[in-house]
Amino acid sequence: MHYLNYLKNIFDNRIYMKVLDYVTDSYNIFKQKLLEAFILGIAMYFLGLISLIPVLGWYLYAKLFPKIVVWYYNKLDIKVDPKYDISFKSIIIPLSITMIGLLIMIVGSYLFAINSTEFIEISIILGIILVIVGFILYILLLYTLFGSIIGKVDKFKIYAKKSGYLLLISLIPVSIFYILSIIVSIIPFIGLLLDIILAIFYEPYLLVLYAVTIQNMR
Question: How far, rounded to the nearest angstrom, does the alpha carbon of residue 97 sit from its chain's CA centroid?
């Protein structure tokens, strides 16, 4: 019941207007440094590829992601006081669980492909469960991750309510991104190029939105 009331409060007119302010303020900050946003988008793409490497890739992603975000925030004059140990834990735990789940599912699919029935169902079910658990943990640690980068979090713990708030706010740019992506993808000749450009600039804007929202949280 408590969380139902919380969700109702999110759609209160005053809160709705505040969210719109966060979205527009983030855009005004984001557009000041488009070159840096482009560099960040490219860096995040390659960092995502690195994260596909088992263990070492996960470690490098968890180490480098907060530092790249801090670099970008500094370019935008967003005040930060990073706690890298907390941000590292906020990434490495859900990422490791998710990727282990995916690896187990891949092994299960391989066994299925070679007609080996041993442990196929168990491995696939276990993999799916781990992926779901990792994804839920990522959402629950969303505020912990970016709050530790901004400097508002100095202890590794789950802030479920604030993380949920960040997730709901992020649905606005996510929805806009997918709508624009569908629109530009049907444009002849340059549709694919425009789609790639949108994807590159999407994450930098989302990072700014997180920063603006967290700075205004109590």
Answer: 16
Give per-residue burial for 54-78: e unless 16+ CB within 10 Å, then b. Answer: eeebbbebbebbbeebbebbeebeb
Place of tokens 């969700």: 7
Please tell me the distance from the alpha carbon of residue 156 to that of residue 153, in angstroms, as a whole number.
8
Q: DSSP assignment, residue 53?
A: S
Cβ neighbours for 55, distance < 8 A, ≥ 6 positions apart:
none
3-state secondary structure of 1: coil
Distance of CA 170 to the CA centre of its chain: 9
Residue 132 to residue 115: CA distance in whole angstroms: 27
* Residue at token pair 């606005």: 172
What is the tally of structural domains in the chain? 1
pLDDT digits (tens, 9 = 90+) for 94-120: 999 999 999 888 877 776 655 656 667
Q: Is the pTM of this model over 0.90?
A: no
Domain span at 152:
2-215
Structure-token pair, residue 190: 């340059």
Q: Which two tokens stand for residue 181?
A: 């992506």
Question: 3-state class of 191 per DSSP?
Answer: helix
76, 94, 60: which is closest to 163 by C-alpha?
A: 94
Among left, alpha and beta (phi > 0; psi -120 to 50; other), residue 77 is left
With a cut of 50, list the residues of the chain below it in pLDDT.
1, 3-4, 7-8, 10
Predicted pLDDT of residue 162: 92
Q: Say what the pLDDT of residue 16 is.
A: 59
